[in-house]
Hints:
The complex is a heterodimer of chains A (361) and B (600). With 361 residues, chain A is of the alpha+beta class. Among the domains of chain A are: 5-84, no CATH class; 209-270. In chain A, 33% of the residues lie in helices and 31% in strands. Chain A contains 8 helices and 17 strands. Chain A has helices spanning 5-20, 40-45, 72-83, 103-109, 185-199, 201-230, 242-267, 339-346; strands at 24-26, 33-37, 52-57, 64-66, 87-91, 111-112, 116-139, 143-153, 159-160, 172-173, 269-294, 297-306, 311-312, 315-316, 323-324, 326-329, 336-338. In chain A, strand 14 (315-316) and strand 15 (323-324) form a beta hairpin. Chain A is flat, with a radius of gyration of 30 Å. Chain B is an alpha/beta fold and 600 residues long. In chain B, the strands form 4 sheets. Chain B has a 6-stranded parallel sheet with strand order 6-5-7-8-4-11, with helices on both faces. A 6-stranded parallel sheet of chain B has the order 12-17-16-13-15-14, sandwiched between helices. In chain B, helix 15 packs antiparallel against helix 16. At the A-B interface, helix 1, helix 3, strand 5, strand 7 and strand 8 of A face strand 3, helix 1, helix 2, strand 8 and helix 21 of B. Strand 11 (269-294) of chain A pairs parallel with strand 3 (20-25) of chain B.
Amino acid sequence: MSVTVGESQLRDFARSLLEHTGGIVDWPHDQRTGLVLAPVEVARCLGQTDESFRVALSGTEGDLSLDLGGEFLDRAACTLATYVPAQGAFALPGLNVKKSEFARTVEQAFGWQNARCQVCQGNAMLIVYHTWWFHVALRSDDVWESLLAVTINCDGQTVCRMDGLLEAMEQRPVPGLSRAPDTTIRTAATCAQEQVLQDARTFLDRMDNRVERDRQRLRDYYRALLREAATPSRRVKTVPGPEELAARQRAVKLELQRKLAELAERFAIDGLLRPVALAEFHVPGVVIDVRIQRKAAKREFRLYWNAVQKRIEPMQCSRCGRGSYNLWFTNETVEPVCNACHDQADTGGGSSRAGDGEKLA
Amino acid sequence: MDVVRDAHDARVHRTVGGLPVRFRVDDETFLAGSGQASRDQLHLHLQLGRLQLLRGFDQLLCLEGLHGVEHLPHQIETVRKALRRFRGRVLLADEVGLGKTIEACLLLREYLLRGLAQRILILVPNPLVAQWRDELEGKFGLDFTIPPRTATSVQPAFWQRTDRVLVSTSFARSGERPAAIAAAPWDIVIVDEAHHCKNPRTKLWQLVNSLQRRFMFLLTATPVQNNLIELYNLLTLLEPGHLRTEKEFKRQFVTRGNPRDPRNRQRLRELLGEVMIRNTRSLVQIDLPPRYAQTIVAVPQPAERQLHEGVSGLLRRCAPGTDPPSPARPAPAEEDPGAPAGLSRLQVRSILAALGSHPAAVVHALESLAQADPDAARLQQLAGQITHSAKDERLLELLRDGQDHKMLVFVHALSTLHRLQQLLTQAGIRFTTFSGEQSRSAKDAAVESLRSDVPVMLCTDSGGEGHNLQFADTLVNYDLPWNPMRIEQRIGRIHRYGQTRDVFIFNLCTENSLESRILGLLSDKIRMFELVVGEIGSILGNLEEGEEFESVVLQMWMAARDERQLDQAFTSLGDTLLDAQAQYLKSKELDDALFGEDFE
């Protein structure tokens, strides 16, 4: 019996799901159907009335049919959400971290545009990261979907490109998350949105082209209608008065507006981010304390030496939340501001984050 | 980066073309979760996420998990085209019988599964409402609300809060409803028999034009009824401006003095090809063998005749009163609380249908009435005493004569089915049974048994749906549904794609029964059994103003005081059907000439 790639993925997933939720699966690899004995509540969650049921690939007779279009994935999602935790914590031991002289490293990594930086000390310790996986969907006239991961330094709130930590061989589970998920989800979601907008550029361009084509068609049509409304018909003897003509034109314009609004509504892009899983990683690294002096004001910050990426992580811009190595600081509260936000403030564009009104140098 | 934040709202991004991109984070359930996941458990969640992505690419989701829906290659191709090329705004103009409804339902399912649609409005001519409801529920598992015939359906709130509505066009466009329906936003609007939207001055055209919708499927086998301007009006509903203004359209494409004759035919076909899909039989190479029908009238025994007369009299005494029938006049609600002697229209219909089926079905149908009415009790007793009906004898003759053929015998009522099981067993005729009561495996076994072993299968109306029964070539309607669409469905079990032999249909009815009149109408007047598959739907669809066919029949029966009046009413209905058929044939001729057989 031949099994397609999609089917084999479905089968592997179903088997894992059932086994992780306490079920026993008897499903030989060369068969399209298998037998399952699952805890009654799990069976119920999967839409089965009996704890023993037949599972089958699409198009084959069975109690639980595995296919992409049917109810299986929805039921599986519900079962997973109910019976399988989606948040875990892990430690990565064994990374070679040496406490050394960091002053030069910091100097090389950062550009302090309007402040002075004094490196105080570096301490080797475990740095906590949250890796979030999001299922992202953009819905418009069409749909675009993706699964993407974002890793956030829980204390520095900066975004780090550290894919593959979950696959690291030597990680070991640690009990419980040391940082609550809600401390990083906003930053992670913001970062994910930006990544989506990059990844989905072709899709967004396609939507732009489509809507423009449709707008143009509507405008041409209603413009032609307007012209016709203004021209008296040869068949009708009586010429419409100016008031009647104006009323006709108003009606056509209103109809055009309505159709354009309908078009805009139809193409408006609705993005939905749904967290799928969260892993907390305790990674050995070095925390470097620095003191920033801006005019008379001083403030201490922490920088992080990332032992996986082997570099210092950027600082988070207080306005847009993005990480940056080129920083400006505000006069009194010594808030770090990235180049882009600084330029925006300079050109009068205002801050991209509401509520921060302090003037930049 | 090309996408920028909106100057007024930091949460909104804008594409280069200015489309707003709004993000939401659905994290409530996730943040409420607890427990400590292992690496494998996290992988399991990610695996599910990747599988959900598989839904999004090249394969159609609508085909998976569907049971009992036979979809043909041209239908799948139509769905793909409508999704990709037409982006959900399409005129589905397949020739009759090629499955426009299935195509629309597949498209609908695809949009629902992809999360692109939630609020659906389906507008269909009244006689086709039941057919649509059956298809949506039975084949696609989609529940739709049919608006109640009460003040509720005039209130905008009803249309705002009901996500899936199936409504007849005549109902939707009457009174204050158009404004209420137009005030609600819809993701998908489907209009069946869309040629009724041919005139922008009609309420229906204006209703459809005023609807707020993202996607729209217009369905008709005959987009042009009288002239090309109708096609223009139809397509303007779908994509305003696609054919420019009416004046420009006439100038470019209509021969002066003959609005039926197109100019610049090739250019017109190109433009139509951007918004319309038309599959023809020759294009998709579906040519069914002929079908032959014969009506067999059974002359009742005295006891049976007495039962027919008795039950008819009882029902006339107990049924709610009514005005003379008209296919164009809406019937009162099914449940009529004002009916004398407590009999509702639904009860009357059910007892009449049982009477047309078998005395055993009458015993069952009169059960509750017999407890309150001594006449009903007496008739029930009489029905119980009739062990062999006249139709039973004729059925046995048919089965014995046709031993070389695989036969399906359709019955409406379960009591009749059980009685026929006894009859065939006593007569020593080998048979199998297929009914809605059975499990799926029992149904599979029944079909297999018919294929390889026994010559006869007794079926209820669900008979064989989703199974290939083309190896059978003979069908017996032991009793007759009042709705021609249901008769067509029965025939469609064997007279369908894949059938290679001539198909024989035998319709059994008792002399002078209501069913014999319906058969006379369908068989003799419009020659339904000789029509191409699907044509009856187009004819009934032309009765846009009318009620569902069975309601019309019931209405006529209840309004007639005697047999003569009933005959007159059937003659009048026959004329209406003939007009509808003539209208259909005229349009078909015009459409064939316009689009040819190779329109793609």
